[in-house]
DNA sequence: GTATCGATGATCT
DNA sequence: GATCATCGATACC
């Protein structure tokens, strides 16, 4: 079997995460996604890496969620689709942010915030421009740019040929902190970071806004 | 290393 | 017209 570093299986022996994996509350899914391998694209253009930072959004019960109080508009329809569906939206008018929907709470999802780049480094470097590898995918907008995730992924259910998540080995140490860049429900401990990683957006709890 | 600030424009009200 | 689940540059420690 081939690996992509850190003992992560990338070859034929690895099965993608099942839909059942995502049929749980977003905090559980967000924590368990840390250490998993995200792969996007096929063949020579396949890119990806180990998930090192996520945030949980509690759907209709979470004031910070786009689905809070059952809000519905054209752009957030995917949040209400079944678990393991991509919800991709535009942030600040120019960046993309990628989520995977969860079960337990309607409209709940996990925001993918950072990966350790492992597969397709040349492609990711080209997409991101001349930046150091530490800045390739250490933020939700940068992650989407490096992986080529855009609106075309919105509403697509996992696993799909265009993207898969492979399980991790073991139980990595995960640190919990406040979510980044939000004002409502900012105190909730719903951000998850692989302990000791240098690939997350910020190593410690972020500033409060 | 951490904090602050302005650009940015699609999306929503 | 207001609002950002951001980014990158800059200033400072």
Secondary-structure map:
Layout: H1 19-22, H2 26-33, E1 37-40, E2 47-58, E3 86-91, E4 95-101, E5 108-119, H3 121-128, H4 140-147, E6 163-166, E7 174-178, E8 189-194
Antiparallel strand pairs: 1-2, 1-6, 2-5, 2-8, 3-4, 4-5, 7-8
Helix pairs in contact: 3-4
The chain binds a DNA duplex (13 and 13 nucleotides) through strand 3, strand 4 and helix 4.
Question: What does this protein structure show overall?
Answer:
13% of the residues lie in helices and 27% in strands. It is of the alpha+beta class. Strands 1, 2, 3, 4, 5, 6, 7 and 8 form an 8-stranded antiparallel beta sheet that branches. Helix 3 (121-128) packs across helix 4 (140-147). The chain binds a DNA duplex (13 and 13 nucleotides) through residues 55, 57, 64-66, 73-75, 89-95, 97, 99, 111, 113, 135, 139-142, 179-183, 202-204, 207.
Concise account of the structure shown:
The protein is α+β, with helices and mostly antiparallel strands. 13% of the residues lie in helices and 27% in strands.
Radius of gyration: 16 Å
Number of strands: 8
Termini separation comes to 46 Å
Poorly predicted segments: none
> What is the SS-derived class?
alpha+beta
Main sheet characteristics: 8 strands, antiparallel
Order of helices and strands: HHEEEEEHHEEE
Helix content: 10-25%
Q: Strand fraction band?
A: 25-35%
Give me the oligomer status.
single chain
Give the count of helical stretches: 4
**Overall 3D geometry?**
globular
Q: Which whole number gives the mean pLDDT?
A: 91
């Amino acid at each position: 079997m081939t690996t992509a570093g850190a003992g992560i299986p990338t070859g034929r022996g690895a099965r993608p995460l099942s839909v059942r994996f995502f049929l749980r509350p977003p905090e559980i899914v967000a924590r368990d996604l840390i250490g998993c391998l995200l792969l996007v694209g096929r063949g020579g253009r396949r890119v990806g890496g180990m998930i090192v930072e996520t945030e949980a959004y509690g759907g209709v019960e979470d004031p910070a969620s786009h689905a809070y109080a059952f809000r519905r508009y054209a752009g957030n329809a995917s949040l209400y689709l079944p678990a393991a569906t991509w919800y991709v939206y535009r942030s600040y008018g120019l960046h993309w942010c990628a989520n995977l929907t969860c079960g337990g709470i309607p409209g709940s999802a996990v925001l993918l915030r950072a990966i350790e780049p492992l597969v397709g480094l040349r492609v990711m470097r080209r997409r991101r421009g001349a930046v150091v590898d530490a800045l390739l995918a250490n933020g939700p907008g940068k992650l989407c740019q490096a992986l080529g995730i855009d609106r075309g992924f919105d509403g697509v259910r996992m696993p799909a040929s265009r993207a898969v998540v492979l399980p991790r080995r073991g139980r990595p140490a995960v640190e919990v902190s406040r979510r980044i860049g939000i004002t409502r429900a900012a105190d909730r401990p719903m951000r998850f970071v692989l302990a000791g990683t240098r690939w997350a957006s910020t190593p410690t709890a972020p500033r409060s806004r």
